[in-house]
Specification:
By secondary structure, this protein is mainly beta. It has one domain. The chain is 3% helix and 49% strand. Strand 12 and strand 13 form a beta hairpin.
Length: 202
């Protein structure tokens, strides 16, 4: 498993915003096990979170929006746990500076194509991706990446990020959605190359 999505981060401390979430996801994607996954409705608190973080040991910053089929996403992150029998849709934009010794740039508002890196006037690189991560009853993990689509960041000021996305998973299906997601503030131990969760919440 290369990226077990956000539930896999090694965290020392995490504070979750109590701001009200908003957003929607339309569509269905069949995961690697052949199960049809949907994220509708998303009415429960703590089923959408926004992670704005600088990755450890590499000069990269990230905007990560995660949708979960189960409530309690922030609480699970606080324990470095995965939520059993759930799926997470991870919508991300990563920023890498032109120089390996440079600071990671802030991610500006705009449209980012999945699978097609873009560059600003400084040569900084911005890459968008969308991943569907499914957990079975014992938190075994499988991941599918969108082949194409885009992520639109309309605003990422303050404690919330607003935007839209489309994600085409080829013959497996597609998702489209909107988000107005509150921030989960992660510790400096958060990395963007997210490893496996340390625990499993049934």
């Amino acid at each position: 498993m290369k990226r077990a999505a956000i539930l896999s981060a090694s965290l020392m401390a995490l504070a979750c915003s109590s701001a009200k979430t908003g957003g929607s996801v339309s569509g269905t994607v069949t995961n690697a096990s052949g199960a049809a996954v949907t994220f509708s409705p998303l009415g429960e608190a703590d089923s959408i979170v926004y992670l704005d973080t600088r990755c450890n040991n590499v000069s990269t910053s990230a905007v990560l929006v995660a949708f979960s089929t189960r409530a309690g996403l922030c609480a699970a992150l606080d324990e470095s746990d995965a939520l059993a029998s759930s799926s997470v849709l991870l919508v991300e934009v990563l920023a890498t500076p032109a120089s390996s010794v440079g600071d990671a740039p802030q991610i500006p508002n705009g449209t980012y194509a999945i699978g097609t890196p873009s560059h600003d006037n400084n040569g900084d690189t911005f890459t968008a991706a969308v991943y569907l991560v499914s957990y079975d009853g014992t938190c075994g993990t499988e991941q599918t990446a969108a082949a194409s689509g885009n992520v639109v960041i309309n605003s990422s000021a303050g404690q919330e990020v607003d935007g839209t996305f489309t994600a085409d998973f080829g013959g497996a299906g597609s998702f489209t959605g909107t988000f107005a997601a509150p921030t989960c503030t992660l510790s400096d131990n958060m990395t963007c190359d997210l490893g496996q969760s340390s625990g499993c919440q049934p």
